[in-house]
Amino acid sequence: MHEQIRKYIYENKQRLLSVLEELVAIRSVKGEPVQGAPFGTGPRAALDKMAGICRNTGFDTRICSDVVGTADLVPEDCKFPSLGILCHLDVVPADGQKGWETDPFKMCEKDGVLYGRGVIDDKGPLAAAFIAMKCVKDLGIPLKKGVRLLFGTDEENGSEDLAIYRKKENLPEFVFTPDASFPVINIEKGMMRSRFTAAYHGGDIISFHGGSIPNAVPDHAECIVSGFSAEEIKKAADNYTSSAEFIVTEDKDNVKIECIGRSAHASTPESGINAVTALMGLLSCLPLTAGKQTDIISGLTSVFPFGETDGASVGLKRSDENSGALTLVFSIFDMENGKCNGCIDVRFPVCLSLSDVEKAEREALEKAGCKFDGYMGDEPHITDADSDFVKALLSVYERIEGEKGKCIAIGGGTYVHNIEGGVAFGAERGDTDYHMHGANEFITVDELMKDALLFAEAIVEICG
Ligand SMILES: [Zn+2]
User: Fold this and answer.
1) CA 122 to centroid of ligand 1, rounded, Å
2) Does residue 110 share a domain with residue 62?
3) 415 CA distance to ligand 1 centroid (A)?
C-alpha cells in the first residue's frame, strides 16, 4: 500500500501544483470586514475557492460562520472525524514588499523551486493535505476513523477564526497543523506581552523613542539629551561596552544619540542586538541630573540590562529540560513630556505560568519606578510526546524522510497553541530559511510532494 500511495501522489503532481497556483493567485490578506467576510473579501474569496475545490472532489464540505472551511473523509459508520489537519488560507501582505523577484500572487517555478506568497505559509501545505486526502479517497483505502481538513482565514492576525469556529463546532480529537516545522512541535512556550508606564517632571532627556514592534528585538532607538556636549557623549559611548552602534550629533543646543542594533524575533533574542537597552545603558553611564527621570532610566537599566535575554535581573531566569530557557525582550520604550511607556515580551517554559511572570515583572517594574499596566498572553502549550498520536506522526516521518523523528519545543506560538492535544507537523525542514512572511517566499517541488506523501501516510497510520 505504501508504494500505491507514493505512486498516486507523484502521478498527481500537476493537480497539486494547479491547486496551489489557484490559491496563490488570491490576495487573501486581511482586509476590512464586510457582510459575510469578517476578515475581508480576500480571505473570503480564498475560502470559497478552496471549498469549491473540495466539494468538486466529492468531500463533504462546509463553511462555518464565514471563517473556517471543512472537508471530511469519514467512513460510513463513523459519526465524527478523529483526525483534523488544520491549515490556513490567509497570508501576510506582499504588495509593496521590497525584494520580490517575481509577482508574489502569481506562483512561479524556477529550477524545481516554487515562489509566491503563501507557498510555504500555508497554502502549499494545505494543497498537499488536500491531495493527501484525495489520495486516500481515490485509492479506496479503508478507514476506521474519519479525517477532516480545516482551512481557516485568520491565522496571521490572532486566529480569531478558530475562536469563532469553536463556539459552534468541536474539533477532532487529534489535530495537527502543517504551519510550522517538522518533525513534531509538541511544546510551545507561554507568552506574555506586557505594557508599563511612568510619569516624571523634567530631566536631561528631552525625548527617547525606541522600537515599534512588540514581539521583536528593537534595532533602532534614539534620544535627545540636554546639558552635554557631543564630545562628552561620544567619549562615554566609546567607553561603554556594547555591540550596538552609536551615532552622536549636535541637535541645536542639544545632542541627538542614535543607536543601531539588530532585529530578531522575540522568541530568539540571542541573535539580536537590543537598541533600546543599549541606549539606556549608555544614558545610565552619563552624570544625569538627579530626579525621577534619571531614577527611571537607571532602574530600567538594572532590571533590563543590555545583553541579557534570560530575565535573570527580573528574577525570571528559568529553564526546563523540555521547553528550554525563558526569553525576555524589552521591545518598545518611549519617553517624552513627563510620560513614558514601554513593552516587554516574555516567552516562558512550562514550569512557569502567566501569574508567575506577571508577579515578577510587576515587582521589577515597581522597583524601577514604573507601573505594570496589564498584559495579553497565553499559557504554555504541551502535548504528551509519548501519546499514540505523536508516536504515529514521528514513525511516518522517519519512514518517509529516512531520518530520526523527534519532538521539539519552540518559543513562538502555532495555530494549535490553544488546542489541547494539538501539535505542529511541517512544513519547514531543518534550518532552511523559506522567507516566510518575506520576499521570495518559497518551497521546493520535492518538499511539497513529500509533504503530500507524509500527510497521506499519516492519515492512513492514524485513521486506517
Ligand atoms: Zn502560517
Assistant:
1) 5
2) yes
3) 7
| 47 contacts: CB under 8 Å, gap ≥ 6 | 63, 66, 67, 69, 89, 151, 153
In angstroms, what is the span from residue 130 Cα to ligand 1's centroid?
A: 17
Query: Structure pTM?
Result: 0.85
Whether 132 and 276 share a structural domain? no
State whether 291 and 344 are in the same domain.
Answer: yes
91 and 156 assigned to the same domain? yes
User: Given pLDDT bands bounded at 50, 70 and 90, which one contains residue 97?
Assistant: confident
Cβ atoms of 175 and 422 within 8 Å: the answer is: yes
Q: 135: left (phi > 0), else alpha (psi -120 to 50), else beta?
A: alpha
The rounded Å distance from CA 205 to ligand 1 centre is 42
Instruction: Using the 3D structure, point to which of 329, 345, 378 is the last residue of a domain.
Output: 378
Q: pLDDT of 320-343, one tens digit each? A: 888 899 999 999 999 999 999 999
Domain that holds residue 182: 2-189+381-463
Cα of 68 from ligand 1 centre, angstroms: 15
Q: How does pLDDT run across 403-434, given as a tens digit for each residue?
A: 999 999 998 889 999 999 999 999 999 999 99
